[in-house]
Amino acid sequence: MNVATPVPDNAVKRAPFGPKLLLSEDHPLCPGCGHPVALRVILETLQALGLEGRSIGIFGHGCSALMIGTMDVDMNLALHGRAPATATGVKRMLPDRVVFTMQGDGDMVSEGLAEVLHTAARGEKICCFLLNNGVFGDTGGQMTAASVLGQRTKTDMGGRKAEEHGYPIAITKLLASLDGVSYVARASVHNAAGVTLAKRFVRQAFEHQLQRTGFSLVEILTMCPTGWAAKTSDGPGYMMDTLGRQLELGELKDVLATQ
Question: Rounded to an integer, what distance in angstroms lies between the CA atom of residue 79 and that of residue 188?
Answer without folding.
Answer: 26
